[in-house]
Amino acid sequence: MCGIVGYVGPRKVVPIILEGLKRLEYRGYDSAGLVYLLDGKVHKHRSEGKLANLEELMEDVDDGGSHIGLGHTRWATHGPPSEANAHPHSDCSGELVVVHNGIIENFDTLRRELTAEGHIFTSQTDTEVLAHLIEEYLDGDLVAAVQAAVRDVEGSFALGVMWSGQPDILVAARNQSPLVLGILEGRGCFLASDIPALLPYTRNIIYLEDQEMAVLRADGLEVMTLADGRPLEKEIHTIDWNAAMAEKAGYRHFMLKEIYEQPLAVLNTFRGRLEPESGVINLPEIGLDAAELRNLSRIFLVACGTSWHAALVAKYWLEKWVGIPVEVDIASEFRYRRLLLGPEVLVIPISQSGETADTLAGLRLAAKLGSKIISICNVVGSTITRESDGTIYTHAGPEIGVASTKAFTSQLTALFLLTLYLGQELETIERERRIEMARALVALPPIIEKELPRLQKDMDVLAADFSRSRDFLYLGRGENFPIALEGALKLKEISYIHAEGYAAGELKHGPIALIDREMPVLALVPQDRVYGKVISNVQEVKARHGRMILVGSEGDEALAEIADYAVYLPRINEELNPILYVIPLQLLSYQIANMRGCDVDQPRNLAKSVTVE
Ligand code: F6R
Question: Any idea which architecture 254-595 has in CATH?
Answer without folding.
Answer: 3-Layer(aba) Sandwich (3.40)
